[in-house]
Structure formats: structure tokens, C-alpha cells
Amino acid sequence: MAKMVLVSLASASTSSRVAAAIVVVLGLVLSLVVVCNGGKTSSFVRKVEKSEVMPLDSDVFKVPPGYNAPQQVHITQGDQLGKAVIVSWVTVDEPGSNTVVYWSAKGIKEMAVGEVTTYKFYNYTSGYIHHTIISNLNFDTKYHYVVGIDHTKRQFWFITPPEVGPDVPYTFGLIGDLGQTYDSNATLTHYELNPQKGQAVLFVGDLSYADLHPNHDNVRWDTWGRFTERSVAYQPWIWTAGNHDIDFAPEIGEIEPFKPYTHRYPVPHNASGSTSPLWYSIKRASAYIIVLSSYSAYGKYTPQNRWIEEELPKVNRSETPWLIVLMHSPFYNSYTKHYMEGETMRVMYEPSFVKYKVDVVFTGHVHAYERSHRISNVAYNIVNGNCIPVKDQSAPVYITIGDGGNSEGLATNMTEPRPAYSSFREASFGHATFGIKNQTHAYYGWHRNQDGYPVTADSMWFLNRYYNPDDESTSAQHY
Ligand SMILES: [Fe+2]
């Protein structure tokens, strides 16, 4: 466009040259305005001190009273459609019962019996970890459930999702890298009190940060289970594995990656044909959610790669219009912390994400917040030099939401200048919600912990990539 203006200037009379010059200046000013609107680094500067881990005697870690009382109760989706729930809990005195008693307002009391497991980690022995699947539930129904026996029964409830379908509203919460600090507690409280009312949490990895304690003190997996129970006993959290969930510690003889994580947090990977709990998919309401593992082999011919190559073509957008991918390490991250760690996986998987029009990719790992424009970087082939990400309306929005509040503190250092692909970035703790309204529209909002519960510090109306692949970036708002 600039070239065309210069050509017209050369052939113009003096007066028209002046007019044309004004046009050029105006054009430059306008283009600068466009560039400035293209993205933003928030002016908020947060404290850089590490966040303080809540002490073991904190009320959020309280052990429920009574002999062998179930603790660390948590639920997750138990099948591919949302008609099953996995209920998990821990007893410490003896194995006790594996039974869950459950009922809806209209139904009679039913029972499901599961199994119990334990594991050892260096000098730690776990409690009795129970996993029971409740199946054949009705959609969109509130169920009460009880775990434990005799005097130590504990009762909770959950609501099953609506039947999978193209026009079904549903709101997901988004939390990552939570840990168990005072900031973690603030994040969870903000999520619970957010009037957007998340109905299930998409958790993008790094749960307890037990590995930062001496010998990966697994007591900190237990305290994290008790801390989060107040949410995850009542609504499913969909789990993604992060690097702090690997617990690989050969120096103390612990060489089985993800041992505490996989013993404690089962997922319905078999239902989606996955051979590993570290990658799987579920359908929930109008969303198809694919969970990937940044810390498992993902190259050509690996189990995870074979699975995703078969998985993406299966997604039927007429049934589930919204295609969401979760993993831990971001493809696009403009903070200096963990810079380019997701690059090798991006090279492998980004072409498929664009081809199958993934709506949004949520990641954690970087302890800050960032939302990208719709961009892709798939043209580069080593020799052609096309290595700059370009706007691409078939590409996902990449959102880093690793700002749950763990003890490592915020990632405050950013690469400068801000890359053009980054729409908004800010180093503050918080969480987000993704509210699907229908098959074409979803309202996304990021909530920072310093604000009131209803405030969205960054928001955008998502247009579905399959049904309405227009540029929706002008709807983005942040402050
Ligand atoms: Fe991480």
C-alpha cells in the first residue's frame, strides 16, 4: 500500500503533492494506531517475591474428623459423553469401603463399588486411594453422593452435563499451575465466587508442587487434595499433566514418571482409545476437549502422535462445534521464562491444529497470563525463510493461564519488543472462564485476583472456527 502512494506522488502536481503528502502522513498515523491496537503488554507490575506456601496446619488443609474419614474427595468425567463420573478419595487408617452411594431427586439410592490402590514414594507411603466409577447417569441432573461408612460418611453433590449436542451452552473454568500458596487460595476463591459460574474446570497441569519440597514430600499431594476438595468434590476437574507432576527423582530411587499423579488422578483415557492417562479426549455439552502431554513422546510414530492423528479426524463439529485443546507447555509464549520450550511440539502439532480448526488451545507452565491473536507459523520449511507467525483465521487462539499462584511466583520478565502475535499479556495471578453460548459464540474472560469477582481483565467473544470463522479480535477488551 505504501508503494502505491509513493508512485501516485511522483506523477502529481505541486498542490496535489501536498494533499498526497498529508494523506501519507495520515496513513502512517493510522497504521501506527492499528499497530498499537494490535496488542498490549499490561502496565500492571506485580511484586516479584515468591508466593508463600500455606503451612500444614492451615484450615484449608484440615483433616475431616472421625476414624478413617474420607478425605481429598475429587471427581472427574468418567466416560466420553459425561454420563459417568469417577469419584476418588483417600482413607488413612484402613482401606475401608470402596462404595459410593448416589441418588438424584427423582431416583432411588444406588451403589457403585470401585477399587483401592496405594503407592510408595521414597520414605512416604500413601493412604488408601479409592477410585469408583458411577455410570449410566442421566444428563443434566443433580446427584448427591456419599463416601465412607458408619459415623464418617461424607456427602457431596454434582450436576451431570447436558446431553452432547451442537447448541448446548456450557461454562468451563480454567485454572493452571495452582500449587498451595496463599495466592493459590485466592485464585480458587475467585473461581468459586465468579458469577460466570464455571460448571467444570479445565486444569492445564502442575497440581500440588509437592516436588519442590524435600524428597518430593508427598504429604503435599495430600494437602493439595484436601485444599481443592471444596471445588473438585462438587464439579469435575479435567486433568492435564504438567512438569511438576512428573515426580521423576532418580537421586532417591524414584524412576517411574507421574507415579503420584496417575495413582491419584485417574482419567477416562480408555474411552477415547488412548493407551495412556496422559493424553485423552472427552465430549462435554457442545465441546470436544483433547488433552495432550507435553512430557510424553509426541514425535512421529510415538503412541501419542498415532493417537492424535486418529483422533482429530474423528471430531464431528456438527455434534461438538467447539474444539478445545489442553496441554501444559505453550506453543506461543513471549515471557522469558520457559521461552520456546513448546517449540518442538509446535512444529509437530500446529499444522493439525490449523487443519482441523481448533478453536482455542489452553496451556499453563508460564506463571503469568497471555492471549495470542489467531496466528500460525506453519509455512516455514527450513529453507524458505517464512519463519514469522502470520494471521490465520483457521488457527486457534493460544491462551497461557499458568497463573494459579504456586510457590515459584510470577513470571514477570517478558521478551521485548512484544511480538506481534501476542494480543495481551500480564504477569498477575488469576483464572479464566470459557462460556459457550451456542454453536457460534462463546464468551471468554480472564479474572485477575486483585479485582472484584465479576471483573474481566481480559475478555473476548470467540466465534466458532467451524461455523463462523470471521476475525473476532475487535471484540477483545482488556485493561
Ligand atoms: Fe509447569
UniProtKB/TrEMBL annotation:
Iron found in the keyword field: yes
CDD domains, A to Z: MPP_PAPs (cd00839)
One Pfam family here: Pur_ac_phosph_N
Transmembrane segments: none
Gene3D superfamilies: 3.60.21.10, Purple acid phosphatase-like, N-terminal
GO MF annotation terms: acid phosphatase activity; metal ion binding
Alphabetical list of SUPFAM superfamilies matching this protein: Metallo-dependent phosphatases, Purple acid phosphatase, N-terminal domain
Sequence ranges assigned to domain Calcineurin-like phosphoesterase in this UniProt record: 171-369
Positions of the Purple acid phosphatase C-terminal domain: 395-452
Cofactors named for this entry: Zn(2+); Fe cation
Primary enzyme class: hydrolase
Keywords for this protein: Glycoprotein, Hydrolase, Iron, Metal-binding, Signal, Zinc
Keyword field contains Metal-binding: yes
Start and end residues of each Purple acid phosphatase N-terminal domain: 70-159
Reactions catalysed: a phosphate monoester + H2O = an alcohol + phosphate
InterPro entries the UniProt entry points to: Calcineurin-like_PHP, Metallo-depent_PP-like, MPP_PAP, PAPs-like, PAPs_C, PAPs_N, Purple_acid_Pase-like_N
PANTHER family: ACID PHOSPHATASE RELATED, PURPLE ACID PHOSPHATASE 10
Protein name: Purple acid phosphatase
Organism lineage string: Eukaryota, Viridiplantae, Streptophyta, Embryophyta, Tracheophyta
Primary gene name: LOC110768503
